[in-house]
Amino acid sequence: MDILIVHAHHEPQSFSSALYRQAETTLKALGHTVETSDLYQMGFDPVSDRRNFTSVHDPEYLKQQLEERHASEVNGFASDIEAEMQKLERCDALIFNFPLWWFGMPAILKGWCDRVLAMGRIYGGPKLYENGVGQSTKRGLAIVTTGGGQTAYDGWGLNPGMDIVLAPIQHGIFWFNGFLPLEPFIVWSPVRISQEERVAYLEQLDEKLQSLFDEQPLQLAKMEDFPNWGHDTQKRFMVVGSRKREIDEKYMTLVSAELEMVARWRKEGKILNFTIANPKSPNWRGFVTMRGRDRQEIETLLSQLPLIDYLTFEITELMYLPGF
């Protein structure tokens, strides 16, 4: 397989750069063809303007998307951008490796996206989401280092949850262009951990990359479910679960399988939100927002849960409320 790694860290001795080198070495050892764009080492210019083009559509007014469409028609992209586009078009997996700065990617990587992901050549018209350049088969992986610790980004911490932070990449870049996003590989605060822990992260990255094309990707909503850019044709349901039987030994043996199924449904886009009360609570409840065609589909899914004999569910169809 052909893999493109776009690396965005200015310091070669950083742990982010160590992850980049480890990824390149491991993927080559696995037999893949690896191309790289080490943006700082390349001196990549992140500023997107007329320097993107050798062609000119309108010399009086620079409308980025119109110039991109024109350049796509007349082969009018600057040589450095053309080279990056060809790497992108060749790859079977796109990997972004970067430190998290201000809840996003470094400017040089954002500039790579701004300049390389051009309308007409890369996206636009029918080339969006499941029909994008990634063809709903190519993979997208973010390898990220953070300054803050995991609890700051786990959804209960002070910062936004990491799924929210990375949504512009997972959804807005990978999936928007037809790449199937994988669970990101995140190294939490490498500057504050031991050398042994950093080595362990490198070993975990090896394991992640070995299953790059086998891992179940996140299945985000398809464009076909949103005709004319309107609302989702699939419905939303609030499912409130409660126990109808006391916890016993069998219940405890099924908990792991229950959580695995919930995790799989989340990856498949069937579960949008999931939270539960303390397991020891006498009035235990689980709250799940689910996406499906109708109530029957949701009921059928819930009937497959390993703990179904212990649970009862109240299912309520939700409605769209503007502003909420």
Automatic annotation (TrEMBL):
Domain Flavodoxin-like fold: residue ranges: 1-209
A cellular component term, taken from the record's GO annotations: cytosol
A GO MF term: NAD(P)H dehydrogenase (quinone) activity
SUPFAM superfamilies: Flavoproteins
InterPro entries for this protein: Flavodoxin_fold, Flavoprotein-like_sf, NAD(P)H_dehydrogenase_qn
One family name in Pfam for this protein: Flavodoxin_2
Assigned keywords, A-Z: Oxidoreductase
Range of residues in the leader sequence: none
Keyword RNA-binding: no
Entry's transmembrane regions: none
Oxidoreductase in keyword set: yes
Superkingdom as given in the UniProt entry: Bacteria
Family: Belongs to the NAD(P)H dehydrogenase (quinone) family.
Protein name per Swiss-Prot or TrEMBL: Flavodoxin-like fold domain-containing protein
Organism this protein belongs to: Roseofilum reptotaenium AO1-A
